[in-house]
Design a protein that fits this description.
By secondary structure, the chain is mainly alpha-helical. The protein is built from 29 helices and ten strands. Among the domains are: 112 residues, EF-hand (Recoverin, domain 1), CATH 1.10.238; 118 residues, no CATH class; 67 residues.
Length: 647
């Protein structure tokens, strides 16, 4: 970690490098030269440079010395606030500290430590915890909070040791998939790649931990001032977040929100916790509160807006409101032109709504800023494939895989592209690599499909028994349970082996059918029966009445039909009973309602520019709605699209 001494020396060297007239300040021209020099891979337009300079000079107005410009103290403050990375910028400029400067830095630290001996103790204490704790703007303020943090670290360490010993602590291989892109910290965009930890919350060890955690929260509440209580709860939440105890961290951040409702930080971090816990709608609300606080706080929080925009957009995507998410990603990219992650997310979202060319442009910009961004290469390849540029898409997928050999999304999508182009051996190779990285991933169900479909090929000819296949689909078709069972029976009766058989099917076929149903719809119980599908020799027959008895048997039939119907009903209710006016399928995810004609489209038909033939207009205006909430109140926007035509 860069020490404070060497950090200030580096900032001083950067400052003098660009203080061309040696007047002790960086004017707009000198500051512009600095911004361009430390971002050598970025091509700024004049408008972008002016926007950045306006923001800096407005935010750090207290450090502007008349016509001279930003002082050294002001530049140091920008780095302290996270607006730049000292080490990165220092290296980008090719600068080096001299021996005298290093010695002066060390002497300065030693001198200050000698003056006040307690500072050494505090420094050692702070080194035991995460870097955020000593941040000048987002770290710990009160000494009593350090004591709470030390005690909390002991509690977490004890819980980790007990659960690790019992085998309850689990980690998920999230590195294999595309990064969601959300920002945990309020500061510069950074790579976030770590394994997600899942704690076992049902047990004596965790219950004891929560009880002892409650004591620490009470200590924070009993602080001498509201500010100190806020500091305590924020620190507790930060420590818990670092250890991925998000459910408990959320409690602390919510309490901090109550103590200081207009502070950006607790709302932002509460939103992060809610997002990780899968509560996207609540996360969206917290990010909106953070945004409102940042916009109302003047220049104090201006530099934090890009991260808030990004996380708000991701929360909206989680709700299916992709178009609204695009607007916030775009705002993040405008307010911070070097935010490559915002550009990547914008490109991915544009791809999701069918704006392929715009998606390619945004993703190309993200890759220009960060050439080793594997996720951006993967999404760019998908957009290129959608535009029909398959050869370039293949090369781009391969680039993503070269950068990250275990990138499951890139491997799987490249396999799909090879399938579409008829290059089946190459597709098989990609799918095999997917299974090698992620054996239990749902996409590995290609392997399960092969086992199941082979059960419908008695002769080994490579042809599926269509009668049996349609009968397997019957339980999930529309209609009453009785109608579905009748369709299954009639389909089995329709099979060629039953020609001239009247109104009865073979008992062996019915038995095989029940085993297939269990293997497909209840795989945990049905896999062992797949080996028994072939070789049935019973030639006896059964009627529809006997078939119903076998079908409804809870142990040997398809006894989960009632559960299946409840799930279907819940799904229809969850999405508000809305049906797409073009494809007629129930709408899941975003719903786009035409303002004038009042018809609704699903995300797919909207992205393809389809409208019902009965509603022909010169121009269409759509309002986007999410799957859980009907609208985002005042945040919902209309989108005018002239390209929509009747299919």
């Amino acid at each position: 970690m860069t020490t404070r001494g060497s950090r200030s020396e580096k900032v001083k060297r950067i400052f003098h490098q660009f203080d061309g007239n040696h007047d002790g300040g960086l004017n707009r021209d000198e500051m512009a030269a600095l911004v361009v020099a430390v971002n050598p891979r970025v091509k700024f337009s004049n408008e972008q440079i002016n926007a950045i300079l306006d923001e800096v000079f407005r935010t750090y107005g207290d450090f502007i010395d008349g016509e001279k410009g930003l002082t050294y103290e002001g530049l140091l403050r920008t780095y302290d606030d996270g607006a730049g990375d000292v080490d990165r910028d220092f290296d980008a400029l090719g600068l080096e500290l001299t021996l005298d400067e290093n010695k002066a830095s060390m002497d300065s630290e030693a001198s200050s430590s000698a003056i006040v001996d307690e500072r050494v103790v505090e420094s050692q204490k702070k080194q035991r915890t995460a870097a955020w704790a000593v941040s000048p703007n987002h770290g710990i303020v009160f000494d009593d909070t350090w004591k709470i943090v030390d005690d909390l670290e002991i509690l977490v360490k004890r819980l980790k040791a007990k659960q690790g010993k019992d085998g309850k602590l689990k980690a998920d291989n999230m590195d294999a998939l595309s990064d969601a892109g959300w920002s945990r910290e309020l500061g510069p965009s950074m790579e976030i790649s770590e394994k997600r930890v899942f704690w076992e919350e049902n047990g004596h060890d965790y219950a004891l931990f929560v009880k002892e955690l409650g004591v620490l929260r009470s200590r924070a509440d009993g602080a001498r001032s509201r500010e100190q209580a806020f500091d305590g709860h924020m620190a507790i939440g930060r420590v818990l977040s670092e250890h991925q105890l998000f459910k408990e961290a959320l409690v602390s951040f919510k309490r901090a929100c109550e103590l200081q409702p207009v502070d950006v930080r607790p709302h932002f971090r509460a939103g992060n916790c809610l997002y990780v816990l899968g509560r996207c709608n609540e996360a969206k609300d917290e990010f909106l509160l953070a945004l409102e606080a940042a916009e109302g706080g003047g220049n104090q929080w201006a530099y934090l807006l890009p991260q808030i925009y990004v996380n708000l957009g991701i929360a909206l995507e989680g709700e299916g409101m992709v178009m609204s998410a695009c607007e916030y990603y775009r705002e993040a990219a405008i307010s911070c032109p070097t935010h490559f992650r915002a550009l990547k997310l914008l490109g991915s979202a544009l791809f999701g709504v069918g704006e392929y060319r715009a998606a390619v442009k945004a993703l190309d910009e993200a890759i220009f800023m960060k050439p080793d961004y594997a996720d951006a290469h993967c999404d760019l390849a998908s957009a290129l494939h959608a535009m029909g540029e398959d050869e370039r898409a293949i090369a781009t997928y391969q680039k993503a895989i070269d950068l990250k050999p275990g990138h499951v999304d890139a491997l799987y999508n490249l396999g799909g592209l090879y399938m579409d182009s008829g290059r089946f051996p190459r597709a098989s190779e990609m799918y095999t690599r997917v299974l090698a990285v992620w054996p239990n991933h749902w996409r590995a169900g290609k392997a399960r499909n092969e086992r199941i479909l082979s059960g419908m090929d008695d002769t080994g000819s490579g042809r599926v028994d269509l009668g049996m296949f349609f009968a397997v689909l019957a339980p999930i078709c529309s209609g009453s349970p009785e109608k579905r069972k009748r369709v299954a029976f009639d389909t089995l009766l329709w099979r060629p082996v039953n020609e001239g058989g009247g109104s009865q099917i073979r008992k062996a076929d019915a038995t095989k059918y029940m085993k297939l149903l269990r293997a497909i719809y209840v795989p945990s119980n049905g896999d062992s029966e797949m080996l028994e599908l072939h070789g049935e020799t019973d030639l006896s027959t059964m009627s529809f009445t006997e078939f119903l008895v076998m079908f409804d048997d809870p142990d040997w039939g398809f006894g989960i039909m009632s559960t299946l119907l409840k799930l279907e009903t819940g799904d229809r209710n969850r999405h508000g009973n809305h049906v797409c006016s073009v494809c007629r399928y129930p709408i899941i995810g975003s719903r786009f309602k035409e303002v004038k004609s009042h018809f609704s489209l699903c995300n797919q038909c909207y992205s393809e520019g389809k409208v019902p033939p009965t509603s022909k207009q010169e121009e269409y205006k759509f309002r986007e709605y999410g799957s859980e909430a009907e609208a985002m109140k005042d945040k919902c926007k209309c989108f005018t699209l002239q390209s929509h035509k009747a299919p």
